[in-house]
User: Which sequence fits this backbone?
């Protein structure tokens, strides 16, 4: 069975972007910004611990997840035996 790279890339992108956004919102609501959330700002340009930052994190997370999902599908298809 072969994977469709675009489909997997979209799934990874949507999930990772949403995870970054929801994690930021959760920490904003609870008022506890951990060290991990500030670490995200070092990787995602423009990200900050705020509502606007969560939207920027959503975009960067989607791009990051999309690229990773596409590469995973390509590697899987390369090594999968059919």
Assistant:
């Amino acid at each position: 069975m072969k994977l469709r790279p675009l489909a997997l890339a979209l799934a990874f992108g949507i999930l990772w972007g949403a995870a970054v956004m929801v994690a930021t919102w959760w920490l904003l609501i609870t008022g506890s910004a951990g060290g991990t959330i500030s670490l995200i700002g070092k990787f995602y340009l423009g990200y900050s611990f705020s509502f606007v930052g969560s939207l920027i994190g959503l975009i960067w997370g989607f791009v990051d997840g999309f690229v990773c999902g596409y590469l995973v599908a390509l590697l899987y298809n390369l090594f999968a035996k059919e």
Q: What stands out?
A: The helical segments are 5-30, 35-43, 51-79. The chain has one domain: 5-79.
